[in-house]
Design goal:
heterodimer; A: alpha/beta; Rossmann fold; four-stranded antiparallel β-sheet; 11 helices; about 35% helix; B: mainly alpha; Arc Repressor Mutant, subunit A; 5 helices; about 5% strand
Chain lengths: ~300, ~130
Amino acid sequence: MSNALETTHLSKRYGRHWALQDCTLALPAGRVAALVGPNGAGKTTLLHLSVGLLEPTEGLVQIFGCSPLKQTTQTLPRLGFVAQDHPLYKDFTVADLLTLGRKLNPRWDDTLARARMQKLGIPLDRRAGKLSGGQQAQVALVLALAKRPDLLLLDEPLASLDPLARREFLRTLLDATVESGLTVLLSSHIIGDLERVCDYLIILSASHVQLVGDIQEITRTHKRLIGPRQDVDAIASTHTVIETSHTERQTTLLVRTNGPLFDPSWEVQEVSLEDIVLAYLGQQVTERPASLPSTRKQHGMEVVQ
Amino acid sequence: MIEFHLDTHSGVAPYLQIVQQVKQALRLGLLDVNDQLPTVREVVAQIAINPNTVLKAYRELEREGLVTSRPGQGTFVQRTLAGASLASQATLRRSLVRWLHSAYEAGLDSESVLALFMSTFQDTQKEETA
């Protein structure tokens, strides 16, 4: 299967600070992927590198096998991008925005755009700045979808939306993926809704990729183990321990299993996706402090934001 | 036609929730042979779920021989799970109600009843698979 997005040792440095470092990942076509991580983890940098808004300091990024920076005629028509806070020209009416989209994009689907606006009850003569936040987000999404992209990237599309607007936004987005082959990559620091929406996950933390894969495969292979207090060496020899906590009598682990678990002293429990994500995000701080000087992280955050 | 709902805090994978809800409907007789399941687009519009998840659920049901997909038409029920058990369910329910009453009389609260049921249920499951 072909990849919609592929990066190899992709890195971006601002001055002395790495916003993204040694990022190697592949996003197969047709997936709806979540890019999660705390603020300043490098999510926006990765998205901007992917659409050619930034030039990599090191490494390679490819959209359907082409460079978004050097082969723009092959990549740009296939790319849709909604930046953070879904920016629109506030003085333009919705109809103006549709005209702009039509004139600028060779693959523009005006029928789709108008049908979706109507379905959402968004008046075409209203200025974008006068629409509610939820409606502005919807308009930005519809404009990106009417471009008929093969890969749609969304930077924190849900962050500023209330729960109802969020659900409506996801409906429009997911409806566009039905039978279209559209690949979606959306960044988010809200992990609650992701399992119903996404089937692929990329965890980014402190400028590094922590985990990439199919969500069902991820939830299937990660387990919580609870047992009497003991060393984790035996488990760690075959499985990957992500998180460890001890009480006086009990040891609780979160592990990525690399095969069946035979040791009967552990009670094995399923783990929710949210807990898995949190374990990976927490891991960086506790287990690899040496590679992560705090100054770098903070400065990187300021530069990225 | 049935409607799905999704509990994101249940810890059960979304595709499995759909599989379970179809099976539940088949068991209770809410879905019968030749009934159509909602299309992927309808499910997506209804509960804002990843279409691949719905497809995976339907494929799983198809693999178990419960539904069949007719190209260009949709997914239809091929086999029901209700059968003879639907008739005996009323009798079983009555004896369960009697048992519940005797449990409450013995001083058990709802949580103890559930705990007792689940542990007994799991024990018999183990015996049957052993």
